[in-house]
Amino acid sequence: MSNRYAVILAAGQGTRMKSKLYKVLHPVCGKPMVEHVLEQVKEADMQEVITVVGHGAELVQSKLEGRSEFVLQAEQLGTAHAVMQAKDRLQNKDGITLVVCGDTPLITAETMSSLIQHHEEQQAKATILTAHEENPAGYGRIIRGEDGLVTKIVEHKDANETELAVQEVNTGTYCFDNQALFETLEKVDNDNVQGEYYLPDVIEILKNAGEAIAAYQTPSSDEALGVNDRVALSKAESLMRKRINEQQMRNGVTLIDPASTYISVDAVIGSDTVVYPGTVIEGQTVIGEECTIGPNSEIKDSKIADRTVIKQSVVHDSEIGSDVNIGPFAHIRPQSAIEDEVKIGNFVEIKKTQFGKGSKASHLSYIGDAEVGSGVNLGCGSITVNYDGQKKHLTKIEDDAFVGCNSNLIAPVTVGKGAYIAAGSTINKDVPAAALSIARARQENKEGYAQRINTKK
Ligand code: UD1
Ligand code: MG
């Protein structure tokens, strides 16, 4: 096997996106397009990966840091000029260079490998990954001679009527003999409608020099999708979503309505988990087996163990144990750790809280900056008063404590093991273990009051 290098083109602004965000950073299923591309390139096993950055260089670089080398294209003069920026790094190396655009997020490692294999089999100097497109508008067209071999690629804006009718398009992914690539790039000019140095022109130059050019057509034209505007972005999103959802279903996850279920590429979900419609599972989320998630729930960067049920709720950056019941309408905010067999019910907000095994907050509570032991019952309306206007303070509620309804626990405060708090209490002093604390005005009944005020009329 020859040495393999890869160049990812990611320097463009993406004018047609009409966005402040640089094109290749637009997310598809929660991940920047260029990151999808890089991950697939890495999977295709390359010795060296170089990403060409320009617009938003620092941001793009920070997203890909540690996984790619970078070269700067200070001025965006076209795709050939972009590849030229990698010349110093690659020109003297023996082997093949794969060039991929950062705006083709659906391309797979498998297809890249097939392209490379075809390139090697054909002993070509350049091999183009092509695709059949029913509506090829915007793409470069693959022009073949009478012998069926590729002679050149013509950009949409430079194409004549016959060329425009061609439905075989350039996906923007190529495999080149490394040295031939850098020698030929020197010869590319910018004499075209856009005044740019086009990478596809390398093909015609090599062909005219008598070199072998090959083409490999993608088995799925979905992979060819190049995202230049937001219409294509939404198409990429729905194709990627379909791909992810089908993979999850094949792995044993039931999606009641895949069309309204949004799962990030990196999410891992165990078998026999059922995901109901309107659910968004984002980031690096891991969900166990036999869970029920949704409907209408949002889970981000969280870890959920087995047999847990989460309905109409939001969970962010938290860990949830097994056999937990959350919702409907609960909000688990970052840095919470909910242990096994917990119940978090309607309209309960939990923030930065350790919530022990089997404990319950079944209704209408705010529990923030707290350590809740196991077997604790937090009655309806329990509130941790965690913020004094300047600092956040810790509330500790030890094992088996019982907090009556509508209690305020003014932090910092500790409720001891097995202690009881009477409903309606405002607690600002520690409660010893096993004590009953009542901190509310004593009730006084004024007998006959109604008659007295009525006689005044
Ligand atoms: C390009 C191809 C076209 C192909 C299509 C596939 C050229 C001239 N055209 O067109 O044949 O059908 O991709 O999607 O190559 N970039 C740079 N520096 C530059 C210009 C572009 O890094 O100076 C990067 C962009 O960030 C982008 C990629 O190269 O990721 C492709 O550029 P883009 O402007 O999207 O080219 P297309 O018009 O889509
Ligand atoms: Mg493009």
UniProtKB/TrEMBL annotation:
Record-given protein name: Bifunctional protein GlmU
Cofactor entry: Mg(2+)
Taxonomic source organism: Jeotgalibacillus alimentarius
Region (Pyrophosphorylase): 1-230
Domain Mannose-1-phosphate guanyltransferase C-terminal: residue ranges: 267-352
Nucleotidyl transferase domain mapped to chain residues: 6-214
HAMAP family associated with the record: GlmU
Active site: H363 (proton acceptor)
